[in-house]
């Protein structure tokens, strides 16, 4: 590990008079699992958006949906970086959103009819993204990670 990496892995902690505490590996691993899951979930959303059955909505609806998903993904990534710094509230928000995303994705996986290619693309991106989110949520609530979140 380089000296820069070692320095960035240490963040000050505000637990009483403790000087500093190293970020647990579970927090870093959970962060990376979430960060990798975001593009998978965005891909699933875009596949569903572009391959919806029925009459096509106006182009402006597709554009606004694309802007919405981009802004939402940016907010999630921002929360991930705040969570990595030790903010407990971001872990709580990400956990709630992650559980809701996994439940919605699982129900959408089995209840929506899709053409074969979009179905495979959606299934792969949704399953991989959901597993990554579930793993990230699990790691962020382990004992060592739980003690890290103090802000």
TrEMBL record:
Residues that span the membrane, as ranges: 31-47, 59-82, 89-107, 119-141
Source species, domain of life: Bacteria
Stretches for region Disordered: 1-23
Keywords for the protein's UniProt record, in alphabetical order: Membrane, Transmembrane, Transmembrane helix
Designated name of the protein: Uncharacterized protein
């Amino acid at each position: 590990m380089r000296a820069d990496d070692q320095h960035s892995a240490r963040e000050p902690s505000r637990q009483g008079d403790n000087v500093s505490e190293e970020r647990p590996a579970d927090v870093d691993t959970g962060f990376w699992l979430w960060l990798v899951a975001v593009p998978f979930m965005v891909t699933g959303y875009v596949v569903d958006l572009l391959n919806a059955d029925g009459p096509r909505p106006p182009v402006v609806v597709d554009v606004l949906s694309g802007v919405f998903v981009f802004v939402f993904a940016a907010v999630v990534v921002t929360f991930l970086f705040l969570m990595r710094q030790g903010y407990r509230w971001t872990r709580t928000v990400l956990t709630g959103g992650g559980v809701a995303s996994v439940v919605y994705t699982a129900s959408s996986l089995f209840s929506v009819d899709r053409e074969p290619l979009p179905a495979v693309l959606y299934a792969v991106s949704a399953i991989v993204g959901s597993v990554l989110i579930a793993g990230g949520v699990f790691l962020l609530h382990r004992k060592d990670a739980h003690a890290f979140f103090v802000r």
